[in-house]
Amino acid sequence: MFLPNIDTLIFSALTKHYNAMIKPLLPFLEEHQQNAKIQNKNVIVILGDQSFEMLPNGARNYKYILHNSRYEIKLQVGYNEQSTNYPILIRLKSEFLWEQRDQAYYKSIEFIEMILGKLEAVKMSRVDLCCHTDKIKMNKLKLNRFVTRSTSKEVHVDESKINTSQKTEVYLTGRNVTGLSFGKLPIRCRIYDKNLEIIQSSKKTWFKDIWAEYGITDEIVCNVEFQLKREFFKIYKIDTYEELNNEIKSIWIYLTTKWLRYVNLTHTRVEECKTNKVWEDLQHAYDKDWRSYNGIERHKQKSSSRDHILNMIRCYMINDAAHIDKPDFASYAREMLNDVYLLLEDKNIDFEQAVLKKQLSL
Predict the structure, then answer these.
(1) CA 60, chain centre distance (Å)
(2) Measured between alpha carbons, how far is 170 from 212 in angstroms, rounded to an integer?
(3) N or C terminus of the chain with fewer C-beta within 10 Å?
(4) Closest by alpha carbon to 90, among 109, 104, 107, 74?
């Protein structure tokens, strides 16, 4: 099975009367940013009908940065028509895209229009096209069977990285290849063990629910992901989200047929070799409209995350109880809760505020 989706979407936007709409918001944004600087931490703000964390500092070209579990929004103080940068930069987060799929973009636009006015123009800045599959076996891939237009390759072995040239083969004994990457921006491809990535970093165990829905075994799942930057979209004259969707199938076919292929060694010149059958199937991953696949319900995302947290708590409690010689659960739980309460007091942490802040990222 091949399960395609947009895993990251970053775009800049301009509203019709941005300067007029942002002006009354500036005192509010400035006050909360100053509070964040004074406290040296993110502060919670309510904007429109949503809660965000406001960062103490901005970023290049953008004065204010806000984020929650759905998206990150960067805002300029004002817009100069001579500027090549639009005043709003929005990053849709992976969880939101896997939950809402196509609707994630439109819901973000609804929010922007609610606070900053009617949308006038959009430019795609970065799009990550991915495909999860149980057909590609990470531990079976051979570097010398990839044909690519890229001049750079990287092999990820467990947690280390090896830089290689196009003609380099990697031989390993007792160490697992966990990922390969090809190219530098504006096109970069990563092929990696998605299960391992979930365990080691993202903790997005809810992926297993959506894999199960489409018959993907969660024992070995590989992610093939192409990261495309603004320079790529300029070449192909793609600005809007609608233009992206109109061309997404042809883009994927180009990336997996012209830019990168996995071949069977049927010829002395690797460029003349026939494409591997599984890779041929991968080339058609976006033939079916990617928007037609079901998303993962938000409550399932949270439930899977909580299962992981509870398992971690269980392990920590058993380890802690063994260290302080408290084998009786009730007795240990009382002492542990009291110790945590004292620790919160010592660190001057408001538990309720800390929970509310954390909810913004869930």
Answers:
(1) 21
(2) 33
(3) C
(4) 74
Closest by CA to 298, choosing from 70, 48, 66, 44, is 70
Whole-angstrom distance, CA of residue 290 vs CA of residue 245: 9
- Residue range 56-98, pLDDT digits in tens: 999 989 999 999 989 999 999 999 999 989 999 999 999 999 9
CA distance 277 to 290: 22
Element (H, E) at 161: strand 160-164
For the chain, helix, strand, coil in percent to 5 are 45, 25, 30
pTM over 0.85: no
pLDDT at 350 over 70: yes
Cis omega (within 30 of 0) on the bond before 186?
yes
Q: Are 161 and 155 in contact (CB under 8 A)?
A: yes
Nearest to 27 by CA among 63, 60, 70: 63
d(CA 172, CA 240): 44
Distance, CA of 323 to CA of 320 (rounded, Å): 5
* CB-CB contact of 43 with 57 (8 Å): no
181 forms beta bridges with 154, 190
- Tell me: the pLDDT tens digits for 106-135? 999 999 999 999 999 999 999 999 999 999
- Residues 1 and 3: their CA atoms lie apart, in Å, by 7
Question: Which alpha helices (DSSP H) does the chain contain, by range?
Answer: 18-22, 26-39, 94-100, 102-116, 194-197, 207-213, 230-235, 241-254, 277-283, 298-323, 329-346, 351-359
* Residues across the chain: 362
- What is the distance between the alpha carbons of residues 150 and 182, in angstroms, rounded to a whole number? 6
The single-letter code of the amino acid at 274 is K
Cis peptide before 27 (omega within 30 of 0): no
